[in-house]
Protein: DNA-binding CsgD family transcriptional regulator
Amino acid sequence: MTGRLDHSVGVLSSSSFEADMTVGWVLSLGYVARRVTVNDLRSGAPRPKILIVDGPSISADLPPTVTHGVRVIVVGESGTVTVAGGATVVRDDTDTAGVVQHWIARVLGDGGERVQMTRREQEVLATYVLGATVRETADLHYIAECTVRTHYRRVSRRYEEIGRPIANKAQLLLAMVADGWLRLDGSLGPSAQV
Structure:
């Protein structure tokens, strides 16, 4: 077994565009999601609880040590291709999204509501919640201090609208991590908006 599992969805695809689109869709459902490679899964870093694989041929190359304990969902026609042991094969047709969403909810529970933010809001607020002052954040991003405060107020208001009030930047940090906008190592999570 390689590494522990985290409460997220991994997307493995030969096309980075399709992987990014799938990650964006999963994020919009309120789950934490990221694009992964087989090497990422082997690295010993936390593995996602769910792995969405684009195509059975990719899944056939996954070693059992990588998929142990992970719900693997293979999207595509299985035909005569062997898929990873224990994988769920979902045919690529009109109800694919609904079936995949069902499996995600079954494993991870209800995704809840994820607050949306622009990539710029994400970048500016990540700098701010990770310890920079308003002035330092403004200087780093070449914006006015009032713009930093505006980003903070807008995003805080969005959290309040869905019943998750933010009273200070420490709470915003926790909310951004919970929603996948910010990783524990301080790097930015994937943005649902391009």
Q: What stands out?
A: Residues 5-108 form a domain with the Rossmann fold fold (CATH 3.40.50.2300). The chain has nine helices and five strands.
